[in-house]
Design brief:
448 residues, 3-stranded antiparallel beta sheet, Hypothetical protein af1432
């Protein structure tokens, strides 16, 4: 194990220690750029403390990933059955190599993020390109390969890419990146849907800086009870669909696992999907579409490294002062806080009448008040989460069979209609008077 000679104070993990090789990565241009990429886009305009950056989050993911790795590969926590599935776990040299890789992958997993992180990614990158695509390019770049090659022993860039982005994204980036069972498990430690170090750190860190309690849970207990477990028997939930082992939890950690999943649910509903926060995302995207050349971010590594939140924010401030500048209207709304106001939020009673209620209200409002002054923001994600649980009697069972709280999938959903604040009072009165007629589907008689 490499000597950890350097340490950084951290509000979540107290101290994060690094080897000299890891500090070379930390001091690289791609990683130092993350000092200037906000973790939560413009959330600081709603929650003033949420000014933290991808830099410290990436350090936290490295710290957590190695903690998880040490727990799940501890010989006392590994059964003979798992050793047969993943023989690498019993070989000291391979375990040592992959521990270094997993720390580097945790450190580098966000190198490809655009300015203001996720806020503008989907619409402002070429189709088929994601921040993971850029992450892989940077890890494989000449600049970073020099660092990997100078290490003793050298690290293979593709190994770092695989663990940093996971199999699903890797297949889109480079179909030749094939995963062994071992590599699949290790990538799950970083970007897994259940217990990924990325998820654990962002929930704890975002809650801390935003000043909310929703993202807190007992991650110490959770990590201590994580194990590599075989899939449950065929009659235990959906585990039979994947016969290979996965990261699961001992029965004593079930409540901590439930707390993590509930924390994520509440962080989405109360913070990430906050209507005003989402409104600023809309204005940021509108600005960037006009400000960027061809309305897209570049996927060239060198050009990517030159653009951070600082350059975008300077552009916003400049455009806000010049009514003839590209993106002036959106920039002015951000700077002067004249953001679009929420006219309508998803309501289950409306959905019972018409599943397309949000779209109906959006279209009616656009007709009534003019399309440029109306926006719709729709997001829906179900998080069905299942994983193996090792019961006290050593049997492997499905999480959904033992969790009373999360027997049903958690749904994060918003369907918001925003409107220019100059219309808001009149629009609310209009919607109050016309909501029922707008959302009620036409009958056959109406069609005739």
């Amino acid at each position: 194990m490499a000597k950890l000679e350097h340490e950084i104070r951290d509000p979540i993990h107290v101290f994060i220690k690094l080897s000299s090789d890891e500090r070379k990565v930390l001091n690289s241009r791609p990683f130092q750029r993350l000092r200037h990429i906000h973790q939560l886009a413009m959330t600081f305009l709603v929650y003033p403390g949420a000014t933290h950056r991808r830099f410290e989050h990436s350090l936290g993911v490295m710290e957590l990933a190695s903690r998880i790795f040490d727990i799940v590969t501890n010989p006392n926590n590994v059964t003979d059955e798992i050793r047969r599935f993943v023989p690498e776990i019993a070989e000291e040299s391979k375990r040592s190599y992959w521990r270094r890789v997993i720390r580097m992958a945790g450190l580098c997993h966000d190198l490809g993020h655009l300015p203001f992180s996720h806020a503008a990614e989907k619409e402002l990158l070429p189709q088929g390109t994601t921040h993971e695509t850029l992450t892989a390019k940077i890890i494989r770049s000449d600049e970073m390969c020099r660092i990997w090659n100078e290490m003793t022993p050298p690290l293979r860039p593709d190994d770092i890419v695989k663990l940093a982005v996971g199999p699903k994204e890797a297949a889109e980036i480079d179909p030749e990146l094939q995963f062994t069972t071992w590599e699949d498990l290790l990538s799950d430690i970083i970007v897994g849907n259940a217990f990924g170090a990325d998820r654990i750190d962002y929930l704890l860190r975002d809650a801390h800086h935003a000043g909310v309690a929703y993202g807190k849970f007992d991650h110490y207990r959770l990590i201590d009870t994580l194990r590599i477990l075989p899939a449950p028997p065929a009659d235990e939930g959906n585990g039979s669909a994947n016969p290979e082992p996965s990261i699961g939890v001992e029965e004593g950690g079930v409540h901590a696992a439930e707390a993590l999943l509930l924390a994520r649910h509440f962080m989405f509903t109360q913070l990430y999907l906050h209507p005003v926060r989402r409104a600023y995302d809309i204005h940021l995207k509108d600005f960037l579409k006009e400000w960027l050349e061809n309305g897209k971010f570049s996927t060239d590594v060198e050009e990517h490294l030159q653009v951070t939140d600082n350059e975008v924010m300077a552009g916003i401030l400049k455009a806000a002062r010049n009514e003839h500048a590209n993106g002036h209207d959106a920039a002015k709304r951000i700077v002067e806080r004249t953001h679009f106001r929420c006219l309508y939020e998803w309501n289950p009673d409306d959905i019972a009448v018409n599943p397309e209620a949000g779209n109906q209200i959006f279209e009616a409002a656009a007709t009534e008040f003019g399309e440029p002054g109306v926006r719709r923001d729709e997001y829906s994600k179900t998080s069905p989460t299942d994983f193996p649980v090792k019961a006290k009697d050593e049997r492997i069972i499905s999480f959904t069979s033992v969790s009373d709280i999360l027997r049903n999938a958690l749904l994060q959903r918003v369907d918001l209609v925003f409107i220019d604040p100059c219309y808001i009072q009149r629009a609310r009165e209009w919607l109050s008077d016309n909501r029922a007629s707008i959302i009620t589907p036409p009958t056959e008689d109406d069609d005739e």
